[in-house]
């Protein structure tokens, strides 16, 4: 695994979406209520629209372009079903959150 700095832990709070850039890759960090922080590729699987301006209500993320809805705990498509966001492994290292962009989580 190749761990890269994603953001400081202090930027994260439960129920929030935090956009980040790792090199040239846009990432969204979702911390769903009752869950743990998760990192996803910030591109909707529908047409590749950036999800950094999506609407996150602490449980689901809605794509700002076409209204596709994703589960914040899993990245699974809820509307429509049968799709999912690409998830990246993350870890805490001291006071920073790190991501492995090469290790998509299945």
Automatic annotation (TrEMBL):
- Domain Rieske residues, every copy: 4-99
Q: Which InterPro entries match?
A: Rieske_2Fe-2S, Rieske_2Fe-2S_sf
Q: What is this protein called?
A: Rieske domain-containing protein
Looking up PROSITE patterns in the UniProt record yields:
RIESKE
Report any Pfam family annotated for this entry. Rieske
Gene3D superfamilies attached to this UniProt entry: Rieske [2Fe-2S] iron-sulphur domain (2.102.10.10)
Q: Which domain of life is it from?
A: Bacteria
Does the keyword field hold Iron-sulfur? yes
Task: Establish whether keyword Cell membrane is in the entry.
Answer: no
Return the PANTHER family for the record. 3-PHENYLPROPIONATE_CINNAMIC ACID DIOXYGENASE FERREDOXIN SUBUNIT (PTHR21496:SF23), FERREDOXIN-RELATED (PTHR21496)
Q: List the keywords (alphabetical).
A: 2Fe-2S, Iron, Iron-sulfur, Metal-binding
Q: Please tell me the species this chain comes from.
A: Viridibacterium curvum
């Amino acid at each position: 695994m190749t761990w890269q700095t994603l953001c400081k832990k202090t930027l994260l709070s439960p129920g929030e979406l935090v956009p980040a850039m790792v090199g040239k890759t846009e990432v969204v960090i979702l911390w769903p209520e009752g869950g743990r922080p998760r990192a996803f590729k910030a591109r909707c699987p529908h047409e590749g629209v950036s999800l950094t301006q999506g609407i996150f209500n602490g449980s689901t993320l809605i794509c700002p372009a076409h209204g596709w809805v994703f589960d914040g705990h899993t990245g699974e498509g809820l509307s429509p079903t049968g799709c999912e966001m690409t998830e990246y492994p993350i870890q805490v290292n001291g006071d920073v959150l790190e991501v492995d962009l090469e290790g998509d989580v299945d």
